[in-house]
């Protein structure tokens, strides 16, 4: 296989990053993966990936430690900045838990990229940095020109959305000022099989629908995308010279009840929620479009495949026992 060069992936052991590392290794890249605890069993899956023995090198790095980032990025042509805290429960101190690692962490990565003169940086942002905008015209599909409203995120205390919005907008401003070649990708809710052993926050949402058995859940609208398709999108915007700016990465919109209907027709024996409460989701009910990414050549798999492969993965990891 032709050698493709050397790239760094931050937060390599996480859900999305693990699929990206796997894809990069399969396409002939040498990968520097940053992890906070190289010896931790939660990162053990990385070393088992095909070609990992020869082409994957793990670096201990924290987003708030610039010298650790410099060591990991040294010698790389490109960087995929994936690491960022993703909430799975209540937040005690949003500034420390989310805003600082997301915003300062992203700027630290970008500054290291400038210093090392990497050719392109791909930052994983989020649909959370796009969709929380109460001023966006009703019924107009959201595209890359739409940004979440920072004041609104603060008002509704959605610190994850705030962290991703501030991190992405500051990254774009930094790139404009410094001339760094930056592309950002904004995936919505990422589902699909896990490579890592720990259940990540977005997979927890589907696991809960399968086994929680609650009397009632909010009938929220989810914008879903498969983790393998996200990895393909990240590599595509890295490799295609014409890629520029922001890319929304999303596929299907489904309400909680639609998901349960689909899942229960495939797997009738799980403990699904019994009732659904309609909720007014404001701007979160809006539609997002991935047209720009599709124009670049991105394709995605059917929702049934996402759900079937997710359930198989949770079964194999024992999360549905
Ligand atoms: N999953 C989704 O639905 C979704 C949707 C849109 C965007 N995203 C974005 O995709 C990226 C990956 O998310 P994920 O779902 O894969 O979550 P994940 O599995 O929880 O991965 C998050 C990664 O970030 C690392 N990290 C957090 N704080 C760090 C710090 N201070 N220094 C170094 N590393 C740090 C974590 O490392 P440790 O293992 O050491 O904690 C972990 O590897 C994030 O940027 C997230 O915002 C995810």
Automatic annotation (TrEMBL):
Pfam family for this entry, one: Epimerase
Domain NAD-dependent epimerase/dehydratase: 7-244
UniProt keyword annotation of Oxidoreductase present: yes
UniProt-listed SUPFAM superfamilies: NAD(P)-binding Rossmann-fold domains
Gene Ontology molecular function: oxidoreductase activity, acting on the CH-OH group of donors, NAD or NADP as acceptor
InterPro entries assigned: Epimerase_deHydtase, NAD(P)-bd_dom_sf, NAD(P)_dehydrat-like
Keyword Transcription in annotation: no
Name assigned to this protein: NAD-dependent epimerase/dehydratase domain-containing protein
């Amino acid at each position: 296989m032709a050698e493709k060069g050397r790239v760094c992936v931050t937060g390599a052991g996480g859900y999305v990053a693990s699929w990206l590392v796997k894809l990069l290794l399969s396409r002939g890249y040498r990968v520097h993966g940053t992890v906070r605890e190289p010896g931790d069993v939660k990162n053990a899956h990385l070393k088992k990936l095909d070609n990992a023995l020869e082409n994957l090198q793990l670096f201990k790095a924290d987003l708030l430690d610039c010298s650790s980032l410099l060591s990991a990025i040294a010698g790389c042509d490109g960087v995929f900045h994936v690491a960022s805290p993703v909430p799975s429960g209540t937040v005690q101190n949003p500034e420390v838990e989310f805003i600082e690692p997301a915003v300062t962490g992203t700027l630290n990565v970008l500054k290291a990229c400038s210093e090392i003169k990497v050719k392109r940086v791909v930052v994983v942002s989020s649909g959370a940095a796009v969709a929380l905008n109460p001023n966006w015209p009703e019924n107009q599909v959201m595209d890359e020109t739409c940004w979440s409203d920072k004041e609104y995120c603060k008002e509704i205390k959605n610190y994850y959305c705030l962290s991703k919005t501030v991190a992405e907008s500051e990254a774009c401003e930094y790139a404009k000022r410094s001339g760094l070649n930056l592309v950002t990708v904004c995936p919505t809710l990422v589902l699909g099989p896990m490579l890592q052993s720990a259940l990540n926050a977005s997979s927890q949402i589907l696991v809960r629908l399968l086994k929680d058995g609650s009397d009632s859940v909010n009938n929220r609208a989810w914008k879903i995308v498969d983790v393998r398709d996200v990895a393909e999108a990240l590599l595509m915007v890295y490799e295609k010279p014409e890629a520029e700016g922001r890319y929304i990465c999303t596929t299907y919109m489904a309400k909680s009840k639609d998901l349960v209907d689909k899942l229960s027709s495939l797997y009738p024996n799980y403990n699904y929620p019994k009732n659904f409460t309609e909720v007014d989701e404001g701007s979160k009910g809006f539609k997002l479009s991935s047209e720009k990414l599709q124009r670049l050549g991105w394709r995605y798999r059917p929702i049934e495949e996402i759900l079937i492969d997710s359930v198989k993965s949770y079964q194999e990891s024992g999360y549905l026992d």
